[in-house]
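Researcher: Let's run the pair from yesterday's discussion. Sequence first, then tokens, for each.
Model: Starting with the first of the pair.
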Amino acid sequence: MRKTERNMSGRKLGSLLSLAGVLVLIIALFAVVMTAMGTRLDNQDPSAKDPSPAEVERQTLAQTVARIEVLAGERSAELWTAVPLVDASAQWNSVLGDVWVPWPDGPPEGYENPEINVTPSEISDTALITELYELSEALIAAEELDPQLATSMAASARIYAYHLSVETGAGTANGDDICGSVNYAALGALTADESSLEIAETARQYFEFVAANTDPGNRFNEVARGEAVVNLVDAILEQGVADIRPTLVMLPEDPLFTGYQMLADHLIVLADDADAEQRRAIVSFMCTISTPGDAALDVYPTAFPGITAEEFTD
């Protein structure tokens, strides 16, 4: 009996020793693996990789929009146009993905965050209008951003700049013609089809109805808006498009807003196939027909004319 107990005790001791050995081996292997991993991590460069052209473009645009948001916020207590611009600029940056900072809580020792330019050099109406104009120019030239999104945002920024200029009497720092002269030849080449002609003619009749029903002393902007669309109709016909213009169209409840919306929706879709000069023509045209004053004040500007922002977000 005692011999049996001693044998059982010996087997238990042997099992324990074997288990202990296995544990020691596991711990040793774990230490080796962790040491190797630590060595690799220590040798890894934590600095950010060189950004792609798309990221450089996006980051530059986002920084400009961030400055606009600051400026609009500072001026919103005094300027009615700056109030919706605060929200519009926040929407723009949301679509762009906001300004990217590699280490928001501070970089590791020996590294630095890249310079982020989101602080306006001055707070003024001129600074705000200039930033909007330059954003519009950058969006027209953008090569990596979706062309519909870029053109819509470019038009919006240009329209906000023009409305602010009218409201404040200020302009850009360089004295730029904010809307610019519309290149109707480029716009006509882009819209050389019967569908575009029908939309342009319908909008023309809408705008001319609004002008005819505006007090003669206040209809200058309404007449100018109609003349811009007449120029577009002529440019399309000069491309050899068949003249299928309707003689008379039924008027909607709000002909001004409906006419503008029809043109914006159509032109922004065409931006997919537009070159830079045609995109510039779209932006200048949309700015021209959104001239502030009269009935237009209640419907413009918007953050994304011609599109829905959700189309371009995840």
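Model: Moving on to the second of the pair.
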Amino acid sequence: MTFSQGAPSSSPSHWISPSRCALLLLIAAWLLAGYWVVPGLPASAGWENSWLENTQVVILLGGAVTAALYAQRFAGGALGRPAVALAACLVPVWLALAGRELAWGAAFLPPMDIEEGEPIYSSSILFYKAAVAPVVGAAAAAVVAVLVWQRSDRLVWPHLLTRRFPWFEMALGVCAGLVSTYAEGHLGLPVSSTWMSSAPVLEEWVEVAAYLALWAAQWQMFRAVLRAAHGPQPDAADGK
């Protein structure tokens, strides 16, 4: 099977598409807003099953749905099985991330303890806890095997040095990840006294941005792949 990747457009009408620009600004604004908003939020916003963590789960499940819909869209198209594999293999990745945020299902059970008003959930009480790591590991190995077998990487490399590649989305995701790691105290830097009491809330706040950036990177990559085969997509002026 052969397909055309298409050369990067030289049209100056839009450096990036309006929808992509709006999404990048939304993620950046959420990150920056945390500096002022997080200190005013109650400590409960950083707890398990809080509205921030539930927002993360919604984004992650949305990522799985998006990947599944694109896999369906790719099926029977010009890009064939490599594109279907690329999208379909991301579905279990999103589900694994959502499962981790939900403590692999423990979040749906009554808390195992209450510490200073905070409900504590732990996957250690699950009867299937011992099977989680092997199942996730096997799924990860299967994903890699399918992507290599279908050579799905050939759909990605041609965009690597173009503005269609989700470098901006990935950069925002890395920034959010670094702030989250800092808030957890794992960055090798002491958490500032300014943030000490709000560190759990800050962690959950920036993880929302990290997962949204991950979703945006996936969406942008799928649009770039589609454009390579079929031309510009709606609201993707110049394919950016």
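Researcher: Give me one sentence on the second I can quote.
Model: Helices lie at 18-37, 51-74, 80-88, 90-101, 129-150, 167-184, 199-230.
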